Prior knowledge:
The protein is α+β, with helices and mostly antiparallel strands and about 300 residues long.
Amino acid sequence: MGEKNKRKRRFGDRYDGYKVREMDPLFSVIPHIMRTRLDSQVFFDEEVDISGLRKFLAEKRAEIPGLSMYHFFVAAIIRTISQRPRINRFVSGRKVYSRSYIRASLAIKKSLSDDGEEALVMPEFDVTDTLADVTRKFNDAIIEAKAEEEKSRGNDTEVAVKILNAVPGFIKKFFVWLMRNLDAVGLMPKIINKVSPFHSTIFVTNVGSLGLRPIYHHLYEFGTTSVFLAIGRKEVKNEIKRDGTIVHKHIVNMRFVLDERICDGYYFASAIKLFKHYIKNPELLLSPPDSISEDY
């Protein structure tokens, strides 16, 4: 979607990504040294001041129906990708690719009971999306998932899982093995990519909605997702200033798990710093970005 779809495909590209040809030679070797995502995980723990954001969201909820802080965090991620596009890379078959779409896999609870099932929605976004666009697409995905649930069908992902669950174990094992190997060479059926939450730009879970602090969630070995973000509960932190006065800050802790094969640590740190900049300056997300960075 967006600007990336205007690029012409070349030999070595996939339907879901473009082979990265201009990069440090070391990064063409790293996938052969660190062969799995579990080998390549790096962890970032970030505390974000949301004091100003709370006021901003309260003012904008009338303008943007259904707006929540969760939507804002996703919008900040999309905007960060527009400026730091290497975050949207993935490794498959020991090669590095720039993903041809932006998709977020979002885990939501259908109910807050202990037995409440978890649903996955996977809206796709454009690099030019504003906060209003992200909120609308996110809410449309939720509405569609609930409508399918009322029909006792579930969304496409849940239907695919139910079908796979109905077959014997040895067929499941063979199917997953086959899809993994086809994916490594870019030949996995597009329909599987479409319904798979493991083939997204980022996987986001809001454990804060359950009253929990964020966790470090591993990256999945199946699929191509290179970034996992866990958002914790809102908290109040007391901070002592130099003059001895105490300031109450509203904060949220977040934990990122990233595949370090897609770019270097400095780039990751730069992207997270930019992400926090958008949180501190939420008005920047009300309009499309002034410029978009490409990944080649």
